Amino acid sequence: MVVKEGRVVGKGYHVRAGEAHAERVALEKAGPDARGSTLYLNLEPCTHYGRTPPCVPLVIESGVREVVIGMEDPNPLVKGRGIQALRTAGVDVRLGILETESRRLNEAFCKFILNREPFVILKAAATLDGKIATRSGDSQWISHEASRDLVHKLRDEVDGVVVGIGTVIKDDPLLTARSRGGRDPYRIVLDSKLRISENARVIGNPSSRTIIFTTEMAPEDKVERLKKRGVHVLILEAVQGRVDLRRCLSKLGEMEIMSLLVEGGSRVNGSFLDLGLVDKFMLFFSPRVIGDPEALGIFSGRGVENLREAAHLKDVRVRRLSIDILVEGYVKR
After folding, report:
1. pLDDT given at position 4
2. C-alpha to C-alpha distance for 155 and 60, rounded to whole angstroms
3. What is the 3-state secondary structure (H, E, C) of the chain?
4. Per-residue pLDDT tens over the stretch 294-317
5. pLDDT tens string 133-185
6. Is pLDDT at 207 greater than 60 in this prediction?
7. Rounded mean pLDDT of the chain?
8. Which of 23, 44, 117, 263 is labelled catalytic?
9. Domain annotation for the chain: domains and CATH numbers
10. 28 catalytic per annotation
């Protein structure tokens, strides 16, 4: 955002990889008004050539007087070089303004740029006793409409949504972002034996791209039919008869998918938890109690034997969404 004499003269954001960065968009909108202004950024401007030219020379050439930066860029190709270049050119720089908020805003980018893997958010809607469905499988709707609206907003914000084949068979979900103007994410299905119906809605909707991770147990003819329909089918080696989740994340990183929303059932949730692959939890609790030990819980899987091995959350936030309660927190590494 470019501000001059208390007035916003240019705003911008980075739409996607390969397109102009936020500062370039904002400065182009500001035009001559950029000279003598203050430029506000949540992330340090870049100094290197990638898919786009570096931003620091443009900032200097624009005549900006001061740059206020939320956080240093963790990218080893930048990491302080942009700040130093601006100061060397005589531009005043303030760093660390709203740093916590900036880190939260850039959390997916920060993980991806360092690890080349997507940032994983695990979302679940459950009763107060931790059940996501009754013993018969009834789960619609545990959460309130306000919670479901937020989930659609999340789908618009992430690059991909992950479910297991059990969820596809049971619910036949679309996995699209149904908020107004929403952008549909990649729809990613974990299906070790490729049991998915060729009439499944996750395949049939042309507005969203679909990826299926499967194994060598998948029928070859079905793989070919799905590929001809535009489905991206990736075959990985099985681990204990299931899709290797670690390899999934690596493959998605290669595809430059930076953020994932896991909306799986109990088994998929448990697998991500057991392998320590979750970065952030978003758990929606409805004021209901099922009280049945055979009802489905949020997680199945190996679990832990003692509390010191349990996933510990930090930066926990709790908020109300109509009658529901959202508990949101990051896994402490």
Report:
1. 95
2. 37
3. CEEECCEEEECCCCCCCCCCCHHHHHHHHHHHHHCCCEEEECCCCCCCCCCCCCCHHHHHHHCCCEEEECCCCCCCCCCCHHHHHHHHCCCEEEECCCHHHHHHHCHHHHHHHHHCCCEEEEEEEEECCCEEECCCCCCCCCCCHHHHHHHHHHHHHCCEEEEEHHHHHHHCCCCCCCCCCCCCCEEEEECCCCCCCCCCHHHHCCCCCEEEEEECCCCHHHHHHHHHCCCEEEEECEECCEECHHHHHHHHHHCCCCEEEECCCHHHHHHHHHCCCCCEEEEEEECCCCCCCCCEECCCCCCCCCHHHCCCEEEEEEEEECCEEEEEEEECC
4. 899 999 988 888 999 999 999 999
5. 999 888 888 999 999 999 999 999 999 999 999 999 999 998 888 766 678 89
6. no
7. 93
8. 23
9. 2-105 (3.40.140.10), 107-331 (3.40.430.10)
10. no
Tokens representing residue 231 in the block: 């489905």
Q: How confident is the model at residue 206 (pLDDT cuts 50, 70, 90)?
A: low
**Other CB atoms within 10 Å distance of the CB of residue 128:** 13
When mean pLDDT is compared across 106-110, 135-139, 189-193, 198-202, the lowest value belongs to: 135-139
